[in-house]
Structures are given as structure tokens and as C-alpha cells.
Amino acid sequence: MFVRLKSTRFFFIIVLLMFFSTLVAGPKRFSRNDESIDRLGLYSEFLLSFKTREVDSLNCTLVGGWFTGPGYAVCVFDTLAYIGAGFHMKILDVKDSTNPVLIGEIRLPNIIIYDIFVQDNLAFVADGPDGLRIIDVSNPYSPKEVGFYETPGLVYGVWIQDSFAYIANSDRGLRIINISDPSSPKEVGSCETPVWASEVWVDSNLAYVVDRWNGLRIINISNPSSPKEVGSFYTDGDANAVYIQNTLAYLGTSDGLHIINVSDTSSIVEIGFYDLNTQNYYVSSVWVKDTLAYLAISSDISGADSCRVQILNVADPESIKEVGLYFTPGRAVAVQVKGNLAYVEYFGNFPEYLEGLLTLNVSDPSLPFETSRYGMGGINTGVWVKDSFAYLTNHSRGLRIINLSNPTTSSEAGWFDTPGSAIDVWVQDSFAYVADWDSGLRIINISEPSSPYEVGSYNTPGHANDVYVRDTLAYIADWDNGLRIINISHPSIPTEIGSCNIPEWAFGVWVQDNIAYVADGETGLHIIDASTPSSPTEITNIPGEYYAVFVKDTLAYLAGENLDIMDISEPSSPVKIGSYTLQSEWGKKGIWVKDNLSFVADGESGLRIIDVSNPSSPVEVGHYNLSWECHAYDVYVKDSLIYVPYNRLGLYIFKYTGPYSNIEETPIKKDEFNITGISGTMEIKYSVPEENEKVKIEIFNILGQRIACPINRVQTKGNYTINWKEKTGIYFVRIEIGEKVYKQKVLLLK
User: Fold this and answer.
1) How far apart are CA 363 and CA 345, in angstroms?
2) How do residues 391-404 score in pLDDT, each as one tens digit?
3) Quick check: pTM over 0.85?
4) Among residues 122, 179, 147, which one has the least CA distance to residue 1?
């Protein structure tokens, strides 16, 4: 048994309208030396450079999260649907067609999954530049990779027959892989196609390969070690998808649907054609059931509103008739029909970027209707963590509430779709305060996370871009109208009580000691006296371009082209005392400061972790960067975890594993662990209570840099003493004994 899948500066409309690179490229024809994946979402140059690349990280470990993203794959087998979602293959239980439930997922190397084929408890995944990935799905709650094969090209399509995988391998044509041992797949044969193999269908001894700019190629695979082309059919339009039924091939192109008689491979004849009659749309996927053909129709135009599933009666190929259609939320990129249900993977267009799995009831083909939508897309821009929930603002879907009780398997608990574009959120008590761009401030009751509801709103005159809440006041950074102060003592009737205009782009706001600090993307840092909320007055303005601000004690941390640190002990005369050059030059950013570490969501450069224990000389000590198109827009730090929304890819949760510059001391018993420092020598005494305990001792300098690890081994039960010599100064010692961790500061004298 098998089931085959058919796959074939954004937003921040908030800043200069497009602040990150869209993932869409226009349709063109290319030679072998100028290859592009026009409709598959990414450029081949990028994909090839991304091939087998590890995530760029330092002292930062991915713990878990709630993952979303674009995908081109849907494969339904029994009551399970396997779909692509960014880096992840997700497994949904679709027994109840009105309520798909996520039960398992696995992270794969590439950002887009292009095809999935499921057979015998194995999922074979076409993972673009990262080849064929073989996933054991016998336990769908815990899928595991058991093998992979890195082909010389990019893998877009896969078909399994007997013990062979047939791969559509971009400019390398058809590759045939022996998968009898899934842990050690081996290539046994190949056959070149003219330009770009993007999909494959296998029927008996023939492989039907879609070649993007040369139509359909038919290859005899009776001898897998020596496949040979035996027929072809050229189309003027770009070929994208194929479905084989009996002696007919249904070929989807940029022109429409071609029905081809392939009974005689030496004399292939077109017997029917359905013309889309447009240059802006194309057939991206085809599924045929009985006498009906289901077409997934896409467009390369941003914001196109006519992407759809189109149902055709193909009983008479010479007279094809449309019988029904359903407009999808984004580009319909893959379709599969099972029983009376059509499962559609959709991929959103700018600016919404909605993505997910759409389920349609097609029992009456003339009136298909939606039974459920498993939405995954949109641009995630802001985050707040409280108790065991993360509150995530999503440009297209408002406020999303993520259950974090187990960070490794986080799930969506509930959501509320605000009327505008949700940008930022602050949570206080049982309310979430959402900066909703062109719909101002929205106040959401979150006392029951599964059923949030709006209790009040205030439409600011400009565009609400950031929000800070303290007691009964909400401070709004209002894009082109500066600071707005809203009385929220009665959440159902919030009222503006004061404002301070700023001429350009108010991005972020922070309040401390009745002083409001507003980061402006054009005119710098504005320091405003808000002690009288009805009449806030600007104290001073420091020129620059800043997109986020965080204030702690007497220091303000500002994220722009640089991380600038300012002494604000005298608000009327702030002084810049330190700076660190960030990687991303401009756009929405987030910043959080904890334990002398500054965590910066640096747009396309991801998460940067800066040691600011010496404010005059900040040093980067960690980072996590997925890739250039995966923008980090905000950051929140709680306990030992870092929460970062990555635009289209959901919420990522990290743990910083590097040195801390201000390691907090741990209360200890002197008989367990004791340190004395004198005359340039540190004497460390410790006790190992059990046999064969792992012991690790690390020593850090005042900057938090690890400078020594004198012990890192298993030791027997007993008492130990070590001496460590170093020059005069302050040091931090961290010692792990089994499951216990001790931390202590030590001063060494001459």
C-alpha cells in the first residue's frame, strides 16, 4: 500500500512597507547555467549554498517550539496526513475532517519540503538540496530519520516502487535509488532530462518525469541500472505536475491541463486540453479520481486572489467541462483526493503569507465546501511569555496562544483574530494588550487561553507598532504619531489621556520611573517625561535610527544598525557609553536584557546574544541564525529560556549554553563545596557523595568567558581538593556534581 503526494523587508509594511525579501520569484526560462526555481519559492543559488549547511549557531541550543512555515507537500494515508511546514514534516490525525490534530513532527535540514511518499511505515521526503530523507513513521507521535541520500542535484519529486526510489532531481534528471536497506540507500541508475526534472510518477516499467521547460519525459525503468528515455511530449507552457490513470497522462502546465494518450510511447498524442486563459496562473498539482480532475491553481503575483482548486469533468477529453471550484487562502500548491475529501496544501502570498492544510468536502463537485483549515502561516512578529503560555502576535491571524507546558512539543491552545495586523503584545493579569497596526490597541481577555475574546479597543490616530503596559496605563509607539498614553483602568472603555508627537517612525517604547523612552527608526531615541500622563513632554532627543529599546536601571539598550548602550542616569543628558555592530542594518527588531546579557532579535541575522557586563565594551557570546530569509522579529527571556518568533517559521525556544558574566551564587553547605582564594591561588574543595559521579568544574572571568575547566570526568565517592593559580581579579566558579550545580564568586588577591 502507498499513498502518493502531489507537490510540485514583509511585512513590516510597518517599515518602508517591505522590509524583508519575499520568497517568490517570477516565472522564466533558464539554461542549465542559469537555473532558478521560479515557482518553488526559493532561488537555486541559495538552496545550493544551503545544502547540508548546519544552522549557524554559537552557545545557543534549540530546545523546541511551535513551528510553522511554507510547504508544497500533502500525503494522506489511512487517517493521517503528512504535510510540509517549513523545516518540519508534520503528521496530522485527520480522522475527524472538521478538526485536524497535530500528533507528531520532525525537523529536516531544508526550509521547504517538496514531496512526500508514504509506504510501509516509511515516509520518503524530497528535501530539495538536502536530498532524499527517509523517516520511520511507525510511531507517528515520534517520527525518526533512519536514512538519507544526498543526490548531486536538488530533490523535488519522489516515487517508491518495490525496493526503489525514483527521484526527480532538478538538472540531474531521474535518479534511481535502491532503498532495500533504508539506512543505507544507494544509487543504481540515472537518466538525464533536458533541463529541470521537478516531478515523477511511476507505473509498472515506466517513469513519467515532468521536465519544467520540456514537458513530459517517459523513461523505461525495467532495468533500473540502465534507464532509457522512450518517449516525450513537449508543451509551450512550463510543465509542473502529472497524474497517470490507465493509458492517460494528465499534465498540468502554465497553460492549463493537457490530457495525453501514452499507450504507445513511440507515438504520444494529445487528446484533450483545458486552457486556463491567463498568463498569471498555472496548474501546480493534479489529482484524478474517476472522471474528475482536481487542479491546484497557483499564481506568481503577490496578493493574487484567484488561486483555487478547480474541478473538471474529463470523461470526454475532447470536451472538458468545469464543474466546480473553490478559492483558496493562498497559492494552491498540492492536492490529493481521498473519498469525498480533497486535501489541499496552500502557500500564502504577500502580505498575508498564510499557509496550511485545507480540507474540502467534494461529495458534490459542483459545490465544494471547506470542512477545516489547519493554518500555519502568517508573519509572527511579537511575543510575551506568562506562566506556561506564549502570546504570539501574527500579522494575519492576530493573537496566537501557545501552550509551553512542554517546550519540546508546544501546541496552539487558542487564538483571536484581531481586525488589523497584530504587531506586538504585552500581557498583564488576565489581559493581552495588542498593538494592532491600523486598528490601534486591542484588549483581549485571556483568562481562558482556549477561548480568548476582545473586551475593548482604542484606535490610535496612526499605526500602533509597540505597546508597554504599567498599572492602568498603556503606552503605544504609534508609528507616525509618536507616543500615545491610554487609560486602561476600565478595559472595556480604554481612553487616550495624553500624547507626545514624534515626526517619523515610532517603533518601540519602554517606560521606567515615569520616563518613556521611544525608539524611532528615523529620528533616534526620544526621552519623554510622562509623570503627568495627560501632558507628556519631550526632555531630549538623541539622533539615530532605532527599532527597539529596553531600559534596565540606569542604562538604555537600543537596537538599530548597532546595539547602542546609553547611560540615562540623567535623562536630560544621556551619554552613549558602548556600542556593538549588529548584522542586520534595519527593520523590526526586539531586545531583552537579563543577567548582563543582551538578547537581540536582529532581523535576517537571527538571534544575537551580547555580553554587556562591561557596557563600554560589549562582546557577542552567542547567536542562532537559521538562514537569510528567516527573520527574528522579537525576543522574550524567561528563566533560562529564550523565546524568538521567526517571521513565517513560528516560535523558536532556545537555551543559552555559553558563559555568564554574572553567575549567581548558589547557597551551599560548606561540607559539599568550599572555595577560598588567597595569594593568587584558588583552593576548591568538594565532596562526591556517590560512586562514579560526573564532576565538571569551570572557571569564568569577569566578562563571563570560560578560561579554565580543571575537572571534567567521572570520579569515585570521596572528598577532593584542587588548586588553581591565576592573577589577581574576580572569578566565577561553576561546579556540577551529578545532578547538583553550584556557583560561587571568588576574589583572588596578591
Assistant:
1) 19
2) 999 988 899 999 99
3) no
4) 122
